[in-house]
UniProtKB/TrEMBL annotation:
Keywords: Lyase, Metal-binding, Pyruvate. One of its GO terms (cellular component) is cytoplasm. Residues 1-38 are annotated as: Disordered. Residues 56-280 form the HpcH/HpaI aldolase/citrate lyase domain. PANTHER family: 2-KETO-3-DEOXY-L-RHAMNONATE ALDOLASE, 5-KETO-4-DEOXY-D-GLUCARATE ALDOLASE. Belongs to the HpcH/HpaI aldolase family. InterPro entries: Aldolase/citrate-lyase_domain (IPR005000), HpcH-HpaI_aldolase (IPR050251), Pyrv/PenolPyrv_kinase-like_dom (IPR015813), Pyrv_kinase-like_dom_sf (IPR040442). Its cofactor is a divalent metal cation. It catalyses: D-glyceraldehyde + pyruvate = 2-dehydro-3-deoxy-L-galactonate. It comes from Azorhizobium caulinodans (strain ATCC 43989 / DSM 5975 / JCM 20966 / LMG 6465 / NBRC 14845 / NCIMB 13405 / ORS 571). This is 2-dehydro-3-deoxyglucarate aldolase. Pfam families: HpcH_HpaI.
Length: 293
């Protein structure tokens, strides 16, 4: 039976005379009523820079605050490490920090809590394009890290069409472009990882190999000894091994002299301090200066 006239009219929304101004009412046969806006796929400047061998100076962000990230994103650094391994941050905090970083010139790199496909997927869906996977010790673990960032058939990343990564569905062909803009960094920080270093570097899809000096020093018996001459020499040798293996090394050190030595040895993405450490040192120094009279 045909619908009454008034019901046929309501099926396509109220008549134009009573529709709210500016409201695009859906019509039959078109779920949106108009073409969905399209956005361009964000380009990963950090990935392009390290592949070109351009030194990227970074800052480690341990304070899980979008406020501080927004400030630091405009301070002149090339990249900021947003930490979820040791910092008290999870996806809601990282989501907000990525939003805060978007207004600055520094590229955000998210360190996931572990080399876990679910953690990696969630960080990618939140909009992270560069990821650092901690404690990667074998080529197999490096392969797993890459697979977690790739859609099938190249990998195992799950599909989520309405995510911040896809600009909520507005990036056309996101699933075809995502691999090119995803930067996979793995962290070597144990004696076992050093034994497997060349094999890790050779894994297709690994864009950079980051030396974790703290855990590496502890693994080799130099607890609290990152600056020990033997460790400094070993780190320099490891940086050169990564370069010789055809990959791109990175490191973190708050020691200015060591940072320059490590860059000379081949580090191409170098974090030169930690936000929380800067806050502690500078505030303590300021208080001590004025209390001294």
């Amino acid at each position: 039976m045909p619908l009454p006239l008034e019901r046929r009219a309501l099926k396509n929304g109220p008549p134009p005379s009573v529709r709210p101004a500016g409201h695009h009412w859906p019509v039959s046969g078109n779920k949106s009523g108009n073409a969905m806006p399209q956005e361009a796929m964000p380009r990963n400047a950090f990935k392009r820079a390290i592949h070109a061998g351009r030194q990227q100076i970074g800052l480690w962000c341990s304070i899980p605050s979008p406020f501080t990230v927004e400030v630091l994103a405009g301070s002149g650094f090339d990249w900021l490490l947003l930490d979820t391994e040791h910092a008290p941050a999870d996806i809601p905090e990282i989501f907000a920090q990525l939003q805060a970083a978007a207004g600055g010139s520094a590229s955000p790199v998210v360190r996931v809590p572990s080399n876990d496909p679910v953690a990696i997927k969630r960080a990618l869906d939140a909009g992270a394009q560069s990821l650092l996977m901690p404690m990667v010790q074998t080529a197999e673990e490096a392969h797993a890290a890459v697979a977690a960032t790739r859609y099938p058939p190249e990998g195992i990343r799950g599909f989520a069409g309405m995510s911040r990564a896809t600009r909520f569905g507005r990036v056309k062909d996101y699933f075809k472009q995502a691999h090119d803009e995803t930067c996979v960094l793995v962290q070597v920080e144990s004696a076992q990882a050093l034994d497997n270093l060349e094999a890790i570097c050779a894994v297709e899809g690994i864009d950079g190999v980051f030396i974790g000096p703290g855990d590496l020093s502890a693994s080799l018996g130099f607890l609290d000894g990152q600056g020990a001459p033997e460790m400094v020499k070993l780190i320099e040798e490891t940086l050169r091994r990564i370069v010789a293996a055809g990959n791109r090394p990175g490191i973190l050190t708050a020691d200015r002299t060591l940072a320059r030595r490590y860059m000379a040895a081949g580090s191409v993405f170098t974090a030169v301090d930690i936000d929380l450490a800067l806050l502690v040192r500078q505030t303590e120094a300021l208080a001590a200066e004025f209390k001294a009279g």
